[in-house]
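hiii, so i know i said id send this last week but things got crazy w the move. better late than never?? heres the sequnce for the chain we talked about at the cafe, plus the structure i predicted for it. fair warning i was half asleep when i ran it
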Amino acid sequence: MVRGVARAVLIAGVYLFGLLQVSGAQTVRPAAAANPAVVAVPQGSAWWMTRHLERLEQVKQGGVDLLFVGDSITQNYEKAGPAPDEVFLPTWQDFFAPHRALNLGYSADRTQNVLWRLEHGEVDGLAPKDVVLLIGTNNTDPVLNQSSPETAEEVTAGVVAVVEALHAKIPGAQVLLIEILPSAVTREKSDEDLAVNQALRARYAKSNYVRCLDLSSLFLKDGALNVGLFYDSRLKTPRPPLHPDTQGQRLMAKAISTALYGSP
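okay and structure toks below
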């Protein structure tokens, strides 16, 4: 088992190094270059490439009716702890596993990373009935984007690029586009997220293959963010609220399930 993991990490490292050598020109761009949110690039972590290779093997097996694509909030469905804040796996098993679901969530992913994954086989050969997409919050995070902050217009274009790439590769699937969830990282981020959500809602208002789903009301109390539904502030190194906790994620899953399949 240990040898197998070590081998996978080694392969991932070699693969990632080669990819970065090829795509390195894309990571250093002049000021007037293309919108970074639509330039497909991998993350630079060995675990990320290992996960990608593992998912390619799962994709080859097929049999997926429900596909989740996103960042850490989506990947979190795989967590069984630590309790009580990050027990998400039972929620996945209750709401989505019965529908032959596959989780393509990657922590810290931005639109450009999802585009790279889609270009490199992560949905090839699949024919799910529904795709649940939640992406964009890391694009507007000032910590992740200190060197090259992206505007609301750029992030919107990035999300649209992901939606259209999914539609091109899985034309028979309906895309449930979850709007960027509310957070308390910075006022600027919240304003940008709102602008992105409004733009996406307007773009896909009459679409026959995309539905936007606004879940913000789940995380508000008396008009303000209900910080008790996020686990970030309770971490050993506290951070501003961004990730729903066990209760918040279950509320979200129930709303997604209802949007897909109707009331339980």
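btw Confidence is low (pLDDT under 50) at residues 1-32. thought thatd interest u
miss u guys!!
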